[in-house]
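hey m, so remember when u said the tokens were messed up on ur end? i reran from scratch. heres the input so u can diff it against urs
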Amino acid sequence: MTALPPPSGPPPPVLPPRAPATAAAPGTPLPAPAPAGAVSLRGVSKWYGDVVAVNDVSFEFRPGVTGLLGPNGAGKSTLLHMMAGMLTPSNGDVLIRGEAAWRNIEMFRHVGLVPERESVYPFLTLREYVVASAKLHELPDPEAAAAAAIEQVEMTAAMGRRMGGYSKGMRQRAKIAAALVHQPDVLILDEPFNGTDPRQRLQLTEMLKGLGAGGKTIVFSSHILEDVETLADEVCVVINGRLAASGPYREIRRLMTDRPHAFTIRSSDNRRVAAALVGRPDITSVAFTGDRLQVQTSDFGEFTQAIAQVLLDSGTDLHDLEPADDSLETVFSYLVNTQRTPRDLTPGRTTRR
């Protein structure tokens, strides 16, 4: 038999022997699962003496836009500052890209923070301010990075002016430019819409939505329901330091089975539809309002599945069917008024659509 010629090139590397598999000793705790999101909160609490600001919050912030909503003093800013590595949790873990946020200088390469408090220097121009931020991040071309971030917030025309003459909304955008200059994977914003006019609000909303759609993880707080409803893919409702509910707000609303769901119906014969609905076990009330029928049901799923057959059997044409209380304002009002806790409403983490 003819021997094969030796292979050309360097010899293959010699791999070290594989370590034998070992079983964990009985009683040994299993390692924590890997974080599912860029920002991971695991049983996080923060207290100041006897005051509990954040109480046992767990959540995974994935790419996209997540809004923190809650009354003043609910713990939103405390949560954001722990995510940004500015506060240490009293208990639990805050992870950024799988690593602890507290005392982790490398973490700041991946995170941008826009605080609620004023953090601009009135004697600096916007260009000087953002260039200084770029230099702190040791970017190779601070001037170019600053120019790109300023353009991103549509402030190029004003970048040569001292910020002491800026309006509140302009200072807000200056802070965002400084936070974006190093193109972080995670952007944390505390009340970013404070002081902005309608045009600035629209511009910021479109910019943040674009960042979220591009794979960035955007987390912001707001007390303005319309801003959260318009911008956020998901909502975290924080009440008394606890996470009361999380997920797309319409899905949260559907899980509130102790609250009737309201719908308005406009059809070719509202009285005939009302007669067909009265007596159904899932219908709690039927009322006429102008040319519309107001219906309340105790079972969202049953009603939405049955209404087509009800209309068909009654021989009426449907002109309009809308949820009457399917809004973030309704969800927030229900949660605040009932003082819900995560154990009252446990949807898990609903899937973003």
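this time it looks ok to me. The chain has two domains: 39-253, 256-325. if urs says something different then somethings off w ur setup not the seq
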